[in-house]
Each structure stands twice: as structure tokens, then as C-alpha cells.
Amino acid sequence: MAFLPLDASPSRCDPPAHARRDPPLRRLRRARRPWPVGGLRGPRLRSRRRHRPPRHARGRARRPRRPRGRRARPGRALAATPDLLLVPGGGWFDRTPEGVWAQAERGEIPAAIAARRAAGSTIASVCTGALLLARAGILEGRRATTNPQALDDLRAVGGIEVVDARVVDDGDILTAGAPACGLDLAIHVLERLGGPGLAVAAARELQYERPALAVS
Questions:
Q1: Ordered domains of the chain (ranges, CATH)
Q2: Annotated catalytic residue within 100, 123, 127, 187
């Protein structure tokens, strides 16, 4: 490894005299290697890359590419009465086959949400996950929010007091706005469970400054 000098003395920063007299091509070759500083010499860099034949010439079949992005797979079945059920969003606007819109049309997840709410679980949602809560019928007569671009869709359900806020706390139902508001929701849940001190400690650990009036 090579260390850059801390001072700007010409004897340590300027290249040697023979490098200034060399032709441009030789000077370029010398510049590829770090200059020795304090008796330490850096590793030599290869000027030519080792030639490798293409994949089809090496006799190995090309592996299929994995789809981009990460997928979360459940490790076990959903509990019958969880303390807190968090419903994420996604796939409402582009109508993806496994997103919120498709699950709302199938009805299995809304039915599971309604069953957990009837069993006494606290239900929370982030972003367009609130549309699944609405399809489950648990937002009727309640206050809720969702992604700003889906507020009109939530109003179209009817019977819901739609609030344009980052987080809406309506007791046993909590809803958050856009995806970034999920962090406000998480810190607010910690505050409900462990008090303001826990919320402040969590925000400090994350180096996150909570917006004023984030919770409505």
C-alpha cells in the first residue's frame, strides 16, 4: 500500500526528474504505479488484463438470472391473534399480480385482516396497505390515511374519514402515508409501547429527525 504525503513539499509530491523527461507513453506507464513514499512501495498494477474467453467458449452453461429486488417469504403461518398486524403496500398503481390491488380483488388477505381485527389485534398499514384494510371493512367510521396518490381511492370506498397526514393513530388501527412514513409509524408504535424515551432513543439510533406533527 502507499500513503499520500501530508505536506506539499515538492520533494515528496512531484514525480522524479526522469519521469518528466520521459515520453508521454512511458510517463503514463510509470504513473500506473504509486510513487514510493517514506520507504514504502505500493503494489504493482498489471497493465494488461488476463484474457478470458467468452462464456460459451468455456463450455459452461449460462446460469439464469435472478429477478431483481428482494422477496420476503413467511417462515410460519400468521398467528390467529397477533398483538400487532402490519400490512404493507405496493402494487396498487401498477396492478402487479401479487400487489395490493390483486390481493384486494382476491379477498383472502382482507378476510384474514378482518378476522384478526375481530380477535382484538391492533392493525397497522403502510402506504397503500390501507386499501386492504378498507377492503376488509375495518375502516368504516374510522380515521385513516394512505399514499397521497391513493387518497382519492380511499375516499371512494366511503364511510372513512380520510386524513392527509404522515401517520394517523385511531386507537387500535394505525395507518401511515407514503413508504417513508413507515419509519414514523414504527417510532410511534415504540412510543406507544415503551413511552417517549424509547421513541427518542430509537430516533437517535437511526439518526432520524421526526417531523413536527407527524402523527394525527
A1: 84-178 (3.40.50.880)
A2: 127
